[in-house]
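Why do we care about 3D structure at all? Because function follows from shape, and shape follows, mostly, from sequence. That is the central idea of this module. The next example makes it concrete: a single protein chain, its amino acid sequence, and then its structure expressed as tokens.
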Amino acid sequence: MNIHLLVKRRWRKLYHPALDNASLKKSIRQSFFYIVLLLSAHILAMVFFENLGFQQALWLTMVTVSTVGYGDVSAATPAGQLATLIVILVGAITLLPKLVGDYLDYRSNIRDQKRLGKWSWKMKNHIVILNAPAVDQEQYLKRLVMQFRETQVYAETSIQIVTRAFTAGLPESILNLNNVIHYHGRADEIDSLKAAYVQEAAIIIVLTKRETDKASDGRTFDIIHRLKELAVRGKILAECVDDSNRERLHTAGADVIIRPIRAYPEMTVRAFVAPGSEMIIENMFTHAGDEYLRFDLDVEKPQWADVTCALAVKDIGTAIGYIDSKDGQLHCNPPQLQPVTASAIFVVVREENIPDLKTVKAALN
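And the structure:
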């Protein structure tokens, strides 16, 4: 980069406000047009005034505008020298540095816009996450993205996060998860949704900012309504704080509705990998429907299948794991043919049919 370009860029940064991309593109086109016009005129001048061939005239023009000056070919007539002087002053010192400087500024603007979430990426079949939790945003989004990356189906799928949370750009811990970008905007604004190309997304996840704020369901409803206005084709998963709003969100257009359980983002991913399993996982975090109980008793069976069958035949529940009496380790969903020596077992039972320890012992004996 020559000294003229360095001085010009420094002067612009000190005394001129940053230009937007549209202004820079216009300036680049204008500078390029004037440079081509100036160089073409100089080539013609060298042909007519200096009697040079086209190749020599082109060579002299390019050497002059680049300020190299080999000296093998030069202008000798007053008219030719004047034309060369104009090329040096107007082209080499003014227009060319301006063109290069504008281009570098344009590329720098694009890099900054991409980093700060102000760039609209043209995407397709991607995952869009709308909003970010009010608390532990980085940690939750990192875990959510990691859960998608650990599934075979979505291991390489592009993920875009639409939020106003990260004003300085996505944290490195999220960027390092591969193919994750963000758009800095409100999830309930049409322009932000269009910039994230939600129309082409395969999955759209609408997160609530505060998992205990029932008013957030109204904002979720508004976002879903705007998504339907844009005729999105992907599946919409929405978090719902108040169970009474589930039907309302479903009617609005949400395909999957779950509670906002921040400690377990896997539930969100399961809704797409194995539809319906998110309800089973959600059920684990409530006290309605099913109960997950521990029964402290000594069990010794040839196979784990003997335990599960004994409890199922007596309609007690479904055995899901046990504590090994030898090493104290928890075995969750062990192989059915695995020998069992347990000091406690874990059983899923129905809320209306909760057995006592005596009943469980009798079934296993």
